[in-house]
Amino acid sequence: MARDDEPLHKSLARDTTAYFAFLLLVTTLGPFQFGFHLAELNAPQDVLTCKKQSLQQSSLSTSLPHCISMNTTQFSVVSSIFTLGGLMGALSAGSSCNRYGRILTMRATTISFVIGSALETFAINIPMLCFGRFIAGLGCGATIVVVPIYIAETAPPKEKGLFGAFTQISINVGILVAQLLGHFLSRGNLWRIILAVAGGIGLVQSAGLFLIPESPKWLAEHRSPQQARQILRKIRGHKADIDAEVKAWNIDATDNDISEEEALLSAPPGSHPAPNPKAAASSIGIWSALFHPAYRPAIIAVVAVMLAQQLTGINSIVMYSVSLLSSLLPTNASLLIVAVAALNVVVTILCAPLSDKIGRKTCILLSIAGIGTCSVLLAIGLLLGIKLLGAIATLVFVAAFAVGLGPVPYILANELVGPEAVGATQSTGLAANWIGTFLVSQFFPIVDQALGGQGKVYFVFAGFAVLLGAFIAYWVPETKGKSGIEEVWGKREARERIE
């Protein structure tokens, strides 16, 4: 195990195996899809909606229309329908990944990715495009629930914050790839290639998921503790000391009913053994968790952080920034957004170890403070037509998001509740996240127009940053360095009295 004073590169070299890196790569293709679908319509919006005819009439040799005529309200519906699918996927994923396992749930999401992307690619009208976005949203909503849980259950214990950030890193890479493709393919009907790419990646992930094992922790609780131990050893490496991790399962995984060789031979990657009647299979559903005083404070904390991630306005940049900034930078808006997406990836990677160093809560509060400040500066830049201020505020806004509000929310559920309620807590938090995403995607253009445009809506986002930041500072506990749920919540006597 890593020592607290050990350099990060040394602990990573010792604790991280090539096999774990492969698991991380395959599973994070799911969050990649979320980021990709979130941003796929941003750059080609004007060409796709027939608002602007491309000067370069490059197109695919197909009878499909070059564009689908729609007004601003219709485009908002097409954009936001994705979030409704995400909401339904998030609500169903918690119980699914608890009952059927993390891997089977991830396999189901790839079906949504492929079918949804195909419908989008070959869409000839608004309903078909909406239906494709909705189906893709189902998969994205579920994957954002299950992938952080899987990573938290397979990552080296001392680097959970670092590897937990890979969910957001992958989302950001998906956004960047979508923006890059949009920059080069927003002409003729080449925008259909952008939508098809997600389907191809879904097929790749589907194949990869047959090569990776179920979460050892889930197997120990629901199937075979012995097989779980052998899989954990394979992930950690044969020289690693896994006794402390196995002990934390609170399940007897030392039974010698089967030998190590038999366990490995009987458990090909991605397989699921029959339920073990001796395993601890208890799990808490969403409604049970919501009304249980032991879990309600954690759910409130996760929901608050997830809402802060969305209601401070990040997706106004991701989904509408090209049209928003075109008045400020008429010829360079698309290029600026590619730069913003690239910056988001770089800063998220650089800040990934930060939550393990200064704490989860500190990262979130720093992030909210930066976003709130940049919202005010961006509003002023757009209102007064100050190009440099608007551009810098946009870049720093995204960088501030990457410090905390981007990566940290996805790892909190695993640290605020026990394993029996992780699925329910993550689903509830992600449901709130998708509701926030829907509100921003659907109503951002409408509220912006109602306020007279010119970026005044960012004063609203700044207000949300103040309110949610204050609540998080009061309610959400720090989890860094805490050994268990009792230690995380143990000093909240006042809250216990309320509960």
Keywords:
499 residues, mainly alpha, 26 helices, globular
Description:
By secondary structure, the protein is mostly helical. Helices cover 70% and strands 0% of the residues. The protein has helices spanning 8-15, 18-27, 29-39, 45-48, 72-99, 102-121, 126-154, 160-164, 166-185, 191-208, 216-222, 225-236, 243-248, 260-265, 286-290, 296-311, 314-325, 333-351, 354-358, 360-384, 387-403, 409-416, 422-450, 457-475, 485-489, 493-498. α5 (72-99) packs parallel to α7, α5 (72-99) packs antiparallel against α23 (422-450) and α20 (360-384) runs antiparallel to α24. The longest helix has 29 residues, at 126-154. It is globular. It starts with 7 loop residues before the first helix and ends with a helix. Residues 255-266 and 492-499 have low confidence and may be disordered.
Low-confidence stretches: 255-266, 492-499
Main beta sheet strand tally, sense and closure = none
Name the shape in a single word: globular
Provide the helix percentage.
Answer: over 70%
Strand content: under 5%
Rounded Rg: 23 Å
Ends distance: 37 Å
Give me the count of strands: 0
Number of helices: 26
* Structural class based on helices, strands and sheet pairing: mainly alpha
| Overall mean pLDDT | 84
Topology order in helix (H) and strand (E) letters? HHHHHHHHHHHHHHHHHHHHHHHHHH
Gist of the model:
With 499 residues, the chain is mainly α.
Write the layout of secondary structure elements.
Elements (H helix, E strand, L loop, with lengths): L7 H8 L2 H10 L1 H11 L5 H4 L23 H28 L2 H20 L4 H29 L5 H5 L1 H20 L5 H18 L7 H7 L2 H12 L6 H6 L11 H6 L20 H5 L5 H16 L2 H12 L7 H19 L2 H5 L1 H25 L2 H17 L5 H8 L5 H29 L6 H19 L9 H5 L3 H6 L1
Helix pairs in contact: 3-7, 3-9, 3-10, 5-6, 5-7, 5-23, 6-7, 6-10, 7-22, 7-23, 9-18, 11-12, 16-22, 16-23, 16-24, 17-18, 17-23, 18-21, 20-21, 20-24, 22-23
